Amino acid sequence: MTRQIVLLLACMVAGFGAVPQGVAAEAAGSGSPAMDGLWGARVVKLRAENAERGQLFDQGNYAMFIHWGLYSQLGNLVDGKTYYGIGEWIMNRRMADIPIAEYKELAKTFNPTKFDAKAIAKLARDAGMKYIVITAKHHDGFAMYHSKACEFNIVDATPWKKDPMKDLAAACQAEGLGFGFYYSHNQDWTFPGGGNGPKVDEQGNPATFDDYFEKKCLPQVKEITTEYGPIEIVWFDTPGNMPKHYVEQLVEVVHKNQPRALVSGRAGHGLGDYQTLGDMEVPIVNVDGLWESVDTTNDSWAYAWYDENWKSPRQILERLVACVARGGTYMLNIGPQGDGSVSARCARALRGAGDWVARYPQVIYDVAGSPWGHAMPWGDVTRKGNTWFLTVFEWPASGELYLPNLSEEMQAAALLNGESRSAISWERRGKHVVLSLPARAPEALASVIELRFAGEPKVDTVLTIDPEAGTELPVEFATVEQMKLSEKRWMEKFGEWKRIVHAHAFEGDGAVSWEIDVLEPGEYQVSLNYAGEGRIVWGVEVEGGEKIQNQQNSSHNYQTFPVGWLHFPTAGRHRITVRCLEGDVAKASLHTLEIEPVQ
Predict the structure, then answer these.
(1) b/e sequence 439-462, b meaning 16+ C-beta within 10 Å
(2) Between 48 and 157, whose confidence is greater?
(3) What is the DSSP string of 339-398?
(4) Residue 162's Cα: distance from chain center in Å?
(5) Phi, psi of 514, deg, nearest 5
(6) How far apart (Å, rounded) are the C-alpha atoms in residues 11 and 510?
(7) Which ranges in 466-562 belong to alpha helices (H)?
(8) DSSP 480-533
(9) H-helix or E-strand containing 294?
(10) Contact present, 589 and 531 (Cβ < 8 Å)
(11) From CA 65, how far away is CA 442, in angstroms rounded?
(12) Best CA proximity match to 186, nearest among 100, 244, 107, 254
């Protein structure tokens, strides 16, 4: 029998280059006023022109991504047919399969007269973001700036005849934001020799990747790193099988021309300055080093005419706080329309979350991840030295909020309401600290509690079952026996990636078990999130205690089904185990165990 204890960190973290740490500095004019903390802590204010190399990334923690190009004019509608999926891939054979010559014709009608660089930079600032990264060239090969290396660009090939990147670079500088470029260095679907592009030139001569690299890729990277002022990031993407020596040349050019700039983790061959997680991936355990999560405000990166599935201000905050609390940076994408305009709904959601960030900048900027290493049932935690910031999304109706397995005694606790604050009391119950809160949360989206400790607090990171909020136990934190634990990725629509870690391939007495702390004894509703085929019987048991089982249907997608009530007779440490007992066990796939107190 084999046993495997798995943490998500082991699945995620890959090697990447070290980055010199930014020096914390305070500079005027970054947006929200600097706030003196309850005990004199200062909030670091970051402005691009005063930042050291990597400082906006390392301390700013929040950025705007922009996917905008020739594909935006189509918006996923080609010859009257809608293609569902990410818009920037519309010409690809897996989407509309648009011939190169036909795609290039689109440039003759590309006239984005509603593009407003100042408005976009202001939107990013209002949202609380610290820099902008925009597509200079995506896989379609169309340059969104005036490139001398290739005429297939927004100045030479369109009636607009303007370079929007000049305006956006200047607008970012005026707003105190950093500026950077996305550049597809491997794939180029329209230039001879580019990755997944034509294999012959216009004269029918064979074209190699070296032709593409020397004639277009390398010259264009030199252009974007020399003609647009200070650059914070060059965001390379999809290296594929690109040989290492090409990537080394590009990284050398970036660092030579822009000594302050970082190179994204997707440059390839471990040559990036930081790690970029998978698209739309927000980790559930802390990740070491410099890293970012890239996400979208709706489902597509580039504009798709039908896509109105916007993230709400609360959803944006939940994902932003989760990334920062895991120790990383959150870069959230917008996809302007072909005319250059930004959806009013998208802007409203960003500003709604940004208003909260402006009220609580100390939660987001220049902070470290949660000491527990994972989210809490009620929210999440960021910290600055011995000061912690609790972001509470699920306000406890009882007025009691649990801080589990906390050894250090607190010096003070305060409930924040913008710049005002009120002291709150607490008490110790065994290994836990319980905060006494008012019946009503001061904030509609999320409330913030500030804690101060004399020394560096120590916590036990074991998962705890909250007596009021529902608790999810992902299989990443479990011990498995006679089964497999692995990552699973799939697309909902083309390019819309989903990712989980699942327990599967149950054999014999195969089991998934978690060590947990129950804060209060009592009755709890147990449910399972799983996928499979047909009716499946699941069993759940507490070691040395009650066993329950139930049959539920299943689906190819992951859904949550109840198993039943389970009694925990005592508070404290327990082991809870799940087994797949009957049905098509071989196709069963378990994602999480969910436990909620019976009220």
Answers:
(1) eebbbebbbbbbbbbeeebebebe
(2) 157
(3) TS---HHHHHHHHHHHHHHHH-HHHHSS-BPPTTSS-BTTEEEEEETTEEEEEESS--TT
(4) 33
(5) -125, 140
(6) 22
(7) none
(8) EESSEEEEEEEESSBT-EEEEEEEE---TT-EEEEEEEESS-EEEEEEEEEE-S
(9) strand 291-296
(10) yes
(11) 31
(12) 244
User: Given this model, what pLDDT does residue 456 score?
Assistant: 87
> Are the C-beta atoms of residues 108 and 118 closer than 8 Å to each other?
no
Q: Is pLDDT of 41 > 90? A: no
Contact 499, 278 (CB under 8 A): yes
Q: Both tokens of residue 302?
A: 């580039």
Q: How far apart are the C-alpha atoms of 363 and 330, rounded to whole Å?
A: 14
Residues 375-408 have pLDDT tens digits of: 999 999 999 999 999 999 999 999 999 999 998 8
**Alpha carbons 246 and 268: distance in angstroms, whole number:** 10
The domain 379-461 belongs to what CATH superfamily?
A: Golgi alpha-mannosidase II (2.60.40.1180)
562 sits in which H/E element: strand 559-568
The pairing of beta strand 536-542 with beta strand 420-423: unpaired
* CA distances to 86, 188, 322, 359, 412 from 369, in Å: 31, 38, 9, 20, 20
**List of E strands, 107-245:** 131-137, 178-183, 233-236
Of the chain, the percentage scoring pLDDT greater than 90 comes to: 89
182, pLDDT greater than 70: yes
- CATH H-level superfamily of 45-71+114-188+217-364: Glycosidases (3.20.20.80)
132 pLDDT above the threshold of 60:
yes
Bridge partners for 485 per DSSP: 503
Residues forming CATH 2.60.40.1180 domain(s) in the chain: 379-461
pLDDT (mean) for 505-529: 96
Evaluate whether 119 touches 125 at the Cβ level (below 8 Å): no
3-state secondary structure of 219: helix
Calculate the CA dihedral of residues 448, 449, 452, 457 and round it to 10 degrees: -90
pLDDT at residue 592 above 70? yes
CB atoms within 10 A of CB 490: 11
Angstrom distance (rounded) from CA 382 to CA 384: 7
Q: E strand or H helix at 451, and its extent?
A: strand 447-453
Which tokens hold the place of 211? Answer: 């032709």
CATH 3.90.1330.10 fits 471-597, yes or no: no
Cα Rg for the chain, rounded, in angstroms?
Answer: 26
Nearest Cα residue to 475 out of 589, 596, 586, 592: 592
For 551, the token pair is: 């049959």
Is a pLDDT exceeding 70 seen at residue 1? Answer: no
pLDDT band at 599 (very low <50, low <70, confident <90, very high): confident
Instruction: Give the Cα separation of 148 and 164 in Å (integer).
Output: 15
| Per-residue pLDDT at 535 | 98
pLDDT confidence tier of residue 50, bands split at 50, 70 and 90: confident
Instruction: Enumerate the CATH 3.20.20.80 domain ranges in the chain, comma separated.
Output: 45-71+114-188+217-364
Q: Which residue ranges does the chain devote to CATH 2.60.120.260? A: 471-597
What does the DSSP assignment read for 124-154? HHHHT--EEEEEEE-TT--BSS--SS-S-BT
**What are the angstrom distances between the C-alpha of 540 and each of 527, 555, 575?**
9, 20, 11
Cα 106 to chain centroid distance, Å, stands at 33
Beta bridge partners of 428: 433
